[in-house]
Amino acid sequence: MKLKSRIIKSNPMRNKGIDRRNFLRISATTGVSTLLASDSFATSVTNNIQEKASSIPVRTLGKTGIELPILSMGVDRPDSQNVLRVAYQSGIFHFDSAHVYQNGRNEEELGKFFEGKQRDRFCISTKGMFPYPLRDNFEEDIMKKLDISLKRLKLDYVDIYYTHDIRIPEKIKDERILNILKRIKEEGKARFVGFSSHDQNPDIIHAAVDTGIYDVGLISYNFKMKNLKENEEAIERAAKAGMGLIGMKTMAGGTEDAEGKIKINGQACLKWVWQNEYITTVIPGLTNYNHLDECLEAAMSPEITPDEQHYLAVLCNREMLYCQQCKQCIPQCPQNLPIPDIMRAYMYTYGYKHASLSKETLTALTLEQDACSTCGGCKVICPSGFDVAKKIAAIMPVTKMPDEFLA
């Protein structure tokens, strides 16, 4: 199979789509709820507006040679083909998914949307998760999952395939993992391979560079990180070694406050990330037209202003929803609970308003509902000031809620 050497700089279909100014005008006059509710309305909008959409700047993804817009789409909800359509027609052509998202419905929706479209006009990445230490059937399991993902996506190959949610350097360097990634590329099921990591451990990035195998790193990166200097040094080393770097968790929890009531200035967050020339693109979860429009507006004018810099500086020392994933809480917990993962689930519900992703995250942890009941008072002290026991009590009930009631 002959693979394309690059992705186009801009989407030739975007001049048939909806540009930022037209979207602002339409949403103001008709209401975003109308746009979200009506498939036929959204179709007529995208078919009838003929003004050319503004270009989004592009950067090269390391040694892969792929040129991507600085704004990509994290497809973490499969329930709006219209948002996906407008994102694509606005110049976004890199879409990120995973085998586990919504039990596969996420990949299926991407497959439906891109079926029949010219393959070198879009870039698709997905991820495969597996337990560590590796099981005896690891190779068979990961190839089976990848084949299922490709079937859902209706593709012969993905552009980037990630090992999902790496947490320790030992896993990223495991020879069996490296060998299966080589095999995936050799068999033409992925153009490039990478790793994703929610942790802010620069050792993971360094370990990936040392292997010489990983083409791309999907990493947490935002203004709130406490070990920013060490991570930026690792990012620079990776970029100079030819690794492409993509940012996630760029909104630092999505709200300004610990209660999740005040929405953060997402444009300032994105612009802060784009000041780092080594970050090629970011993958915010674009779940509705408001999210999409806010991010597009930032991408059209990515230079951060002094007011935005001041705004983020004020937030740096404020307790928010974003867990630093430092893991200092784990040895303090008598039950050895995966508190950073639980805090991430809490953030998904109270910050990103994405309770279904919280349930998905918590269900994978196979926790007892009453895991904290025998402690007689939580003694965990969080460096970020989180009331750990209160947050655990608030988020655990989501695992018992029917999926149809979750956003």
Compile the SSE list and pairings.
Blueprint (H helix, E strand, L loop, with lengths): L19 H11 L1 H6 L1 H10 L9 E3 L6 E3 L3 E2 L6 H9 L4 E3 L8 H10 L8 E6 L9 H16 L4 E6 L5 H5 L1 H12 L3 E8 L4 H10 L4 E5 L7 H13 L3 E5 L17 H9 L6 E2 L6 H12 L5 H10 L23 H12 L4 H11 L22 H8 L12
Parallel strand pairs: 3-4, 4-5, 5-6, 6-7, 7-8, 8-9, 9-10
Antiparallel strand pairs: 1-2
Account of the 3D structure:
This protein is an alpha/beta fold and 407 residues long. The chain has two domains: 12-312, NADP-dependent oxidoreductase domain (TIM Barrel); 330-405, no CATH class. It is 40% helix and 11% strand. It has 16 helices and ten strands. It has helices at residues 20-30, 32-37, 39-48, 81-89, 105-114, 138-153, 169-173, 175-186, 202-211, 228-240, 266-274, 289-300, 306-315, 339-350, 355-365, 388-395; strands spanning 58-60, 67-69, 73-74, 94-96, 123-128, 158-163, 190-197, 216-220, 244-248, 281-282. The strands form two sheets. Strands 3-4-5-6-7-8-9-10 form an eight-stranded parallel sheet, covered by helices on one side. Strands 1-2 form a two-stranded antiparallel sheet. Mean pLDDT is 86; it is low at 1-53.
- Biggest sheet, in brief? 8 strands, parallel
Helix content: 40-55%
Query: What CATH architecture label of the largest domain applies?
Result: Alpha-Beta Barrel
The structure class reads: alpha/beta
- Beta-strand percent range: 5-15%
Give the ordered list of helices and strands: HHHEEEHEHEHEHHEHEHEHEHHHHH
Count helical runs.
16
Mean pLDDT: 86
Q: Give the termini separation.
A: 40 Å
**What value does the Rg take, in angstroms?**
21 Å
CATH topology of the largest domain, which one?
TIM Barrel
